[in-house]
Amino acid sequence: MIRKLLALGLPLAIGFISQTTISFTDAMLISRLGNQDLSGATLGISLFSLVMLMGIGILLAFGPHMARAFRQDDFARLRKWFAQGIWLALILGVVGMAILYNTGRILTLFNVSDDLAQIAQQYNQGAAPGIVFLFLFVHSRCLMSSVGKPGYLTIIMLLTVPVNFLVAYVAILGFNHTGGAGVLGGGLSSSLIRAVLLISAVCLLTRGRPFRHLSLTLQPGRLDWQAIRTVLAAGLPMGVRIALSEGFLPTAAFLIAGFGLEATTVHSFALRTESLITVFTIGLSGAAGTLAAWCAAENDWVGLRRLRYGLLSVAFGYVLLVGGAIALFYPQIQRYIYDVTDAHIISMMWNLLPLLLIAFLFNTLGSCYNGFLVGMMDTRWPTLVVIGSYWVIGLGGGFIVARYFHAGFYSYWIALGVSNLIIAAYNFYRTGVHVQRMVRERLHEPQPAVSG
């Protein structure tokens, strides 16, 4: 089961990492323009991330439907779900663009200064068109995962990382630091790269040999509102869960802005690091969802139990590997990636590191087991737990710790670790409930008569 998890999860993880690297690269290059540009761009990226995660969460609800149809050799039903996913990706993309084009107005509601709101607006003016390309690309890759072939885009996605760096460098800083478009250039370059990724996925699905037998078409046909409602019933809680969990830190950035420019800058560095290292778990979560859907289609409780404990092993192994590497090379990360030389900011980053790693540990476990629950179409209660953990305990607890214990912006990271622990414990318990339910169902199945 661990081998299956890695075979499906690694290509998905690489894809999500490549997507996150786009924003990570933008932030890294924009930091050369100054702390104010970085802080403003981070707020813009934070809003983009909220819109992106909400849409991805909804679209991932197509995965279990397509995976079960594929496992049952019902290709007509698979094509139906894929076609309706194209419709929903377009709808979500248009809504997302409308939100991003109003970034400045939205941020002013959080008492963000006009200067920072204007910088964030500039970034998202360039990045907004890319949200449509991103949603269509995610849905295409979701199909590839559902049929057990997520790795065919891996090389293309890896190549986009250095290409994005070169394009973003020229767009933001120009040649020899002259002629660049600054923050706006970062948003435009990210949209261009996401368009290239979508074109690659389309060519592969329509002309690639591994997918020809599916007879896919890019013409979605008639919009089936019943199918859309079915997906939204599970996908909307998923989107809310992902947006609320992964969007906690971007939202906290709006509140942390009140602690001053240095706190916002340090939080920006930690946010970019956390988003990059935890995005791998979204790939594992997607693989867990596919495997759980396959097991559910075959009523395989043994496979579900192996998946439950396999996720535990893979999650702990990943956290130990990546967490240890960050702790070991943190000075180099500060100097060569974020270009930090200010002694006070470096000290604040070191103070924040233990809290970042604790949050990373529990977030990885919670995210992996959430994928399991998605595959079982169990999304309502996990979403309610996320809402209570992040937005009551997280934001509320962070505010109380900051106000009465004078922990500053660190308070929100303390609250994040506690929230992630609660979610991880609940999701692990909930997966056990599904395994036991399937065992009971198998025990009560009528046994075939033995002839002779």
Question: How would you explain this protein's 3D organization?
Answer:
54% of the residues are buried. A two-stranded antiparallel sheet has the order 1-2. The two termini are 38 Å apart. A hairpin with a 2-residue loop joins strand 1 and strand 2. 82% of the residues lie in helices and 1% in strands. By secondary structure, the chain is mainly alpha-helical. The C terminus is likely disordered. It contains 16 helices and 2 strands.
Give me the secondary-structure topology.
Elements: H1 2-30, H2 35-59, H3 62-71, H4 75-100, H5 103-108, H6 114-146, H7 154-173, E1 174-175, E2 178-179, H8 183-207, H9 225-246, H10 248-256, H11 261-298, H12 301-328, H13 330-337, H14 343-375, H15 380-404, H16 410-443
Antiparallel strand pairs: 1-2
Helix pairs in contact: 1-2, 1-7, 1-8, 1-11, 2-4, 2-6, 2-9, 2-10, 2-11, 3-4, 3-6, 3-11, 4-6, 6-8, 7-8, 9-15, 10-11, 11-12, 11-14, 12-14, 12-16, 14-16, 15-16
User: Order of strands across the widest beta sheet?
Assistant: 1-2
Mean pLDDT across all amino acids: 86
Residue share in helix? over 70%
Helices, by number, come to 16
Largest sheet: 2 strands, antiparallel
User: How far apart lie the N and C ends?
Assistant: 38 Å
State the secondary-structure class.
mainly alpha
Question: Low-confidence spans: pLDDT under 50, at least 5 residues?
Answer: 447-452
Radius of gyration: 22 Å
The backbone outline, from C-alpha atoms, is globular
Number of strands: 2
